[in-house]
Every structure is written in C-alpha cells, then in structure tokens.
Amino acid sequence: MIVIKSNIIKTFMLILLSVHFVFAQNIEFKSSNFRSDKEGLKQALKNIKLADEFLQKGNDAILARNDAIKFFEQALFHYLPANRFNPNNIELNVKIGNAYLYSNQKYLAYDFLKKAVSLDEKEQEADPNIHFYYAMSLQLEGKFADAIHQFSIFKKRQKDKKFEPLADFYKKHIQECESAIELSKNLQKVWIDNLALNSPSDDWSPCLSADGELLIFTSNRVNEHLADDYGRFDNEIYFSTLENRKWTTIEAINTLNTEEDDAVGGLSYDGQRLLIYNVENENADVFESKLNGTKWEAPERKMGKAGNSINTTDNETLASYDPKDIKVYYLTDGGYGKNWDIMFSGVMNRERNIWGKGQSAGHEVNTKYHEGSVYLHPDGKTMYFSSQGHNSMGGYDIFVSHVDELGHWGPAQNLGPPINTPYDDLFYSSTASGKVAYISSNRKGGKGGLDIYKLTFWGSEKPQSLDAEEQLIASIANPVKDKTIAQPIMVEERNLTVFKGKILDMITKESVAANISITDNASGKNYISVVSNASTGKFLVSLPSGKNYGIAVSADGYLFHSENFDIAKGETYNLVEKDIELMYIDIGSKIALRNVFFDLGKSIVKEDSYAELDRLVNLMKQLPNLRVELSGHTDNTGSEVLNNRLSQKRAEAVVEYLIRKGISADKLTAKGYGSIAPIESNQTPEGRQNNRRTEFEIIGN
Question: What pLDDT is attached to residue 303?
Fold first, then answer.
C-alpha cells in the first residue's frame, strides 16, 4: 500500500513546462563552471547533499518494499532549486527522475530522464542506472518495446554485484511491459472522466453509496492546518453529494478530521456508516463512524484494540464492508513477508465488539507484492482490489475476483486498459448497477498527484422499473504466478435490486428513525439490518437476485410495516423508490402482513411466513393490552362462497399460530372478508395479487 503525502510546491510545475531537449553538453557542479555565482553554486551543492540523503533513504525503502513517497518528495524539495541553478547536469536529472518515479507525480520523470540520456552522448559517462530509470519512464509513457530495450541496456552495462539487488525489479518491469502489450490488444469499452472536484494535490479513496449519490474521499489539499516544512498538508476526509448529475460543493467532515492524517476506507452501502483509519503512536487502526442525522459521530475502533480484533501491533488501514455486514475486509502490513495483504475478520459478538482473528483473503488475491485497496460490491460475490502483483501493467492495477460456493475467492482478473495504466490505479468503488464506478490514479493528464476518475461502462440501456406496485408484491417464489497474462474482463451489469426511500410518520410526514430488517424468507434467517436516518428518514438496501426477501420496518410507538421482494435468479438491476409511512399504535391502525404466505387455494401457513408472524408475536408481548383482528382477503376470482370460506380459514390459521407462540386467545379475533374489501382493482394480475392478503388491525388497547 502506498501512503499518500502532499505534492511538491506548485510553482515547480511552471518551471518544468519550459524544459526542452536541445542541450550542448553535461555541465558539472564545479567552481570553474560558475565563477560569476559562487554563492549560488554553494547553495546548490548544499541542496544536493541534503536531497541525496533523502533519496538514499527512499531507494533503500523501495528495495525493502516499504513506503517511501515522503523521502522522495523531500528529496525533490531540495533537488529542484539546484536544478534551476544548473539544469544541464546528467547526474542531477537522473536523481530528479528517480525521485519522481516513486512519487505521485510520476509523469514528470520522463522529461528529466530523457534529457539526461540526451546529455549522456557517449552512454558511458552516467551511471548505468540511467537506463533503468529511463526505461521506467518509457513504460509510463506507454512505450513498452522501447522500455524493454532500455532495461536490456541497463542489464548489459550494470555490474553483476550492483545488478543483483535490482534483479527482481528488473524481471518484474519486463513482465509488466509484456502484460501491458498483451492487455492493450483488448481495450475496455468505458468512458473515463476526471472529476471537477479534484485538486492539484492528492485526491483519493473515493467511497460511493450504492445509489451513487454520496461520495466521500480523502485529500491532502490546502486546508486550515499548517503545512509542514516541505509544503505538504495533512490528509483530511471530505464529502460531496450528486445533484442534477453534478457533484455539489465539497465539504470537510470536521468531526472526523484531526491535526494528523485521516483517511477513509469504506462507506456502508446505505451511506450511514464509514470505515476510516487513524494513526496513534505510529500505529494505524481501523475505526468506524456512524451518521447521526446529518452529523458524523466521533469514530470508535471498529474491532477493539487487543485480542479478538483485527487491530494489532501491525498497521491496519483501508477497509471495506461485506454486503451482509458480518465481515470486514481490510489491508494490513502484517501479511506474508510483511507485505501489504488483504485480510478479513468476521463478527463474533456485535454487542461486545468482538471480532475474529484476521484471515488472509487467499492466495488467488494476495501476492508477494503489495495489495493497495479492497472493495466488496453489494452483489455479495464480487471483490475489486488493487495490487502490484498478478499481471499488472505497472504500479498498482485494479483486479476483480468472484467468490465460489464455498466462499473462496477465485483467480484475479485484470480490468485492463484504459481502466488500468502503467501508473498507480486504485480504490475502485461502484454503484449497485455496476454501470458507474470511481477510481483514483496518478496517471498522466490529471490535475496533479492522485486524482479521482469516473468510469462509465458502455452497453445497451435497459429501462429501470420505478413502479413500486409492480415490485413490492407478496409472492412465493493452485497459486497464481505473477507472470500469468490473463485476458481483461468486462465489468458486467449487476443482478440485484436497490430499494430506497424514506421512513415517515403517516400523519405528520416527519422523518422516523426506524429499524429495517431484511429476512431471507426461504431460510428464515436475517440477511441484513439497517437503520433509517433520523434527520432525513432515508434508507437504502441492496438485494442480490435469486431470493425471496421479507422487509420489516419497525420503530418505537409505531406498528411495524412489511414489504416483500421476490427477485428471480438472474434478474437484472432494478431501482425501486418508495416512501414508507408508519402508523402510530392506536385503535383502528391497520397493516397488511406482506410476508404471510399460503399455497394456492389452501389455508396452511407456510414456513417462510414465520419470521413475519414472529414480529407480530413480539409486538403483542411488548404491548400485552392490545386486542387485534386478523383478517383474510381474496381477489374476486372464483366463487364468493369459497372465497369467504378460504379467507376465514386463513385468518384462523394465523390466529392459531399466534396462540401457539403464547398470545392469549382472548386478544385475537379471526375474520374472513372474501373479496368484499379490495385495496386495488381486480382488473390486473398485480391488483389481484395485492388483494390476496392477510391484515392486522388494532381493535382494542
């Protein structure tokens, strides 16, 4: 994982634009060449000496595969003034190119290294490393064959003893160039746009709500804090909302930002919770913040600090929620060989905040190189992550992996160009439909450093159903070698339904903070639970296809409300918007039990109705004075006599279930109404379906 720091002072950019490549010769930093400005030479040599120390620390860290950006930025801070004094020195241009290659302004390395090569006319005066760094810059420029040629010159010129520490890097860069050539044969069909919210600094880790309307990200742009001695500002967390297809004014989330670096890792799919990481005593841990109305609460450690926790003496940073909310995936530098690996931990006791020991995401995902970010799509079966390994084109590339029936992640597939480049491409975050995603990249052509880019995937437009009445119906229903070159994969449209809206008081229309429980009706098990926003009433849930879901909404003082989704296997993406109005618990209040099911023409309560009826049992036990009527209703199809008889038997079957669960019989009345009380027209299949229902009405309290 790369630790992001601030950019070099913007004025240097203006100087770099004036660089040309028509130079006479290499000019050494010695007094005979600068007799008229000895003081300037003295200061330049001082700057070079200071910069050399940082460059050495940076290169040593790179050889050890550790984070090093801050060292290279510190080196550049001193090298660039010396270069302004004497821009025609081979060694200094190589050093500057070297430093830029490991910064977030990699694209600036090429001009310096090309100039150094042009000054080195005999190809003997400069250190052979000039060809290694020049090859890296050619790789970034997409000149892969030329890069391979320069790498071969480097190997030929460099002495064996000095080549040995770079041998693995040499082989890896060759493989990356070969991968890039192969992957470039199949360009992905996607539009890529640089967002207007980017700054000349680093803008990264975009976290998107499932409906694509909230974006939270990290940036070290100019802020109210003081810059350090090298002009760098600390990272802070920001947000923006989408209105009329444009991101609104950017605002800092002040309750999450401190005087130190703060970074966001993952946003829950409903936009109500946020995973971040903070550094205390030089150790990074994962924290969680919850949205309380319109304010993000002070973050708390998501996993505790010691024992039964992912937070250890290693660094744990960028994290992502699992769609079922029972796991968290995260990055740690405690991986194999002390690399940055992707791990996961499962909840063991949510009330006590106890989580299982971190486990590796598997050898199909983690490599002997660094992994840089992780994101779990709300479809529950797709992981997007970034890695320096596998068949990367260079730097970090974004890969996708799919989970099998046993819960193991499959082979990593490179998303390919133009999503991936030889630069660092990280932090994939997608809408639920999969048609739009956001990434961060320090590729050439951005506004500076890491920028956030929007990906819009091509494909035929498919109409989305927004008719809640059509949707909300009660119905039954071995390790991968790093040299492997795989074909790029197209990001497919997701098979899930997004259900969003607001929870409101039926009378006042004010927002209600309600619990929303999603049940897999086939198994009776809870799929996920979320809470609507206290200030806005907003909620959002994503439901993968292939299941029948019961959705129960409950809040103190209100009758619970139920909906049913029967999403056929393979059904494509749907967006359903509906506001849900809750009724106060009062005489006359009535609700339809949308998740009570019977076989056609029969009156035996099906097992997938039990979760719904158990909610009714709990309500009546909490309010023992309630007296209720359970009523059965049919459509107008068939004999009126048979409909009356069937509806009565169904109402009685529900009452019998409640009595078996401990509810007193004198609190319950069963009544069959047949087809005389429709709530919709019987002229359509959907209307008839909704008229076949069981209702619950308070008749005494």
Answer: 57
